[in-house]
Amino acid sequence: MSDFILDNPFLEFLDARLVAWSSGYAEFRMPIQARNLNRQGVLQGGAVATLLDAACGYAGVYAEQGEPAIHGFTLSLTVNYLDTGLGKSVTAKGFIERQGRSIFFSRGEAWVDDKLLIASAQGTFKYAGTHGKK
């Protein structure tokens, strides 16, 4: 599976990679490194929230190759932390729940090493400009 081009400096700074992307779904993976840890030595909650925000948002802005890019922004994001992040990598998966003309709703899951669910999220996002959805 090849990575997609992010064109997102903050996610690139975190070494996050968009590893799966299709209509209604996005998956990001990030290595757990010392710079992502908090004072207790576990994955920083803000890093998890960032990945969940990206996965939930990208799930609603997929465009086929050759089509104009679709952009959006977060209106709200609620994250529930379920466990600590200790492992080699964290994967955030975003799923569209409902899509309208200008707003979409997504849910997300964050997994450590594809085994341990550490957080869930729900978000509301707004399309930026015209996106061609009917």
From TrEMBL:
List, alphabetically, the PANTHER family matched.
1,4-DIHYDROXY-2-NAPHTHOYL-COA THIOESTERASE 1, MEDIUM_LONG-CHAIN ACYL-COA THIOESTERASE YIGI
Known EC number: 3.1.2.20
Source taxon at top rank = Bacteria
Q: Which GO terms describe its molecular function?
A: fatty acyl-CoA hydrolase activity
Q: Which family does it belong to?
A: Belongs to the YigI thioesterase family.
Thioesterase domain: which residues? Answer: 41-117
**NCBIfam families assigned:** unchar_dom_1
Q: Which Pfam families match?
A: 4HBT
Q: Which UniProt keywords apply?
A: Hydrolase
Q: What is this protein called?
A: Medium/long-chain acyl-CoA thioesterase YigI
